[in-house]
From TrEMBL:
PROSITE patterns: HTH_ARAC_FAMILY_2 (PS01124). Pfam families: Arabinose_bd (PF12625), HTH_18 (PF12833). PANTHER family: HTH-TYPE TRANSCRIPTIONAL REGULATOR GADX. This is AraC family transcriptional regulator ligand-binding domain-containing protein. The keyword Calcium does not apply. Keywords: DNA-binding, Transcription, Transcription regulation. InterPro entries: AraC-type_N, Homeodomain-like_sf, HTH_AraC. The keyword Flavoprotein does not apply.
């Protein structure tokens, strides 16, 4: 059984609908093929399984007979797809520090994405890209070519140079397009069958100062993104858990309500949770158990209030749940927690 794996921000699909329509396709049909609700593309903080994005790009390229789909999409995207991380980078003192910021905080955008600035060869520093999805995903050329295209656009923005070009562009896969198509896009030499995917930069490019950087703004944004990453949901189960946390006290924590918050269909959400080995009911039960421990440790909080905060209509239902979780009544569990 396949697992949903790491998540990626929906901003990775910026301009996807528009490009597919330009090519004569129907983006909504492709999105639904991978259980991505089309309306989710308008929810800026939403996340989807990275595996779905990779497969979506491959299917779209195949169905539209557009072998350079990834490159075309990258031409319509820039560093804004990774949100606040781009603001950290553009407030760095120089380009090298900005690229280190991207490497450090790219997990805010996608837990499965790894960017690194390799300075091993001072004459040929490399900005490399890879993602972790497991061996079952064997076709991912469109995703890699899109990613390197966006990295190329980002370098042009950091250097404030529309004519930016790297020393070379490296791809692990073989050329699927005429070499001239790649050279036209990247404006430099493009090599295939390499050990890494990435851009080989000029040494002078990574030491270029960023004139408009703001140290205080950068520090503020680093604190914000670091805090967000520490509690950042990486799986569908974690997304559901966060939604349940918000909905339990309202008394309307249902599968329908959670699916609505996550802009997914109920059956889709159930299937994605099943891929991670749990049911919606099991996640709700686990959240209730965890909160029950916290609430019972507060001596001044009445048992009836705790039952309500956990979404139980009757205190007797909460009593039964406590016996199932802990082998104790709520009062007995409270005494145990308080020593």
């Amino acid at each position: 059984m396949n697992h949903a794996g790491p998540l990626i921000r929906i901003s990775s699909l910026a301009r996807y609908r528009e490009l597919v329509r330009e090519l004569g396709g129907h983006p909504e049909a492709f999105l639904r093929e991978f259980n991505i609700a089309p309306e989710l593309l308008d929810v800026h903080h939403a996340m989807i399984p990275m595996q779905s994005m990779v497969q979506l790009f491959e299917l779209t390229a195949s169905q539209l007979d557009c072998a350079d789909f990834g490159l075309r999409l990258s031409a319509q995207q820039d560093w804004n797809v990774i949100g606040p991380v781009s603001l950290i980078a553009r407030n760095a003192p120089d380009v090298g520090a900005a690229l280190d910021d991207f490497a450090r905080f790219v997990g805010f955008y996608s837990a499965g994405t790894i960017i690194a600035l390799d300075r091993t060869d001072p004459a040929a520093p490399r900005l490399t890209y890879r993602f972790e999805l497991g061996r079952e995903i064997t076709r991912h050329r469109q995703t890699v070519e899109r990613a390197l295209g966006v990295m190329h656009n980002t370098m042009a923005l950091l250097l404030d140079d529309r004519a930016f070009h790297a020393q070379a562009v490296l791809f692990r896969h073989g050329a699927a397009l005429p070499l001239q198509r790649y050279r036209k896009h990247f404006k430099t030499n493009v090599l295939f069958g390499q050990e890494v995917d990435g851009l080989v930069l000029h040494p002078a490019q990574i030491i270029r100062p960023i004139s408009q950087h703001n140290r205080m703004m950068r520090e503020f944004l680093i604190d914000f993104v670091s805090s967000a990453m520490s509690r950042h949901p990486r799986t569908v189960r974690e997304l559901v858990t966060a939604a349940i946390d918000r909905l339990l006290p309202t008394g309307r924590c249902t599968l329908h309500a959670v699916a609505e918050q996550l802009a997914r269909r109920e059956r889709t959400l159930q299937r994605q949770l099943a891929n991670e080995g749990v049911t919606f009911e099991q996640v709700v039960d686990a959240v209730r158990r965890d909160w029950s421990e916290s609430y019972l440790a507060e001596l001044a909080m009445p048992i009836a209030q705790i039952a309500g905060l956990l979404g139980y209509g009757e205190q007797s239902s909460y009593n039964r749940a406590c016996r199932r979780w802990f082998g104790q009544t709520p009062l007995e569990r409270r005494r145990a927690l308080l020593g």
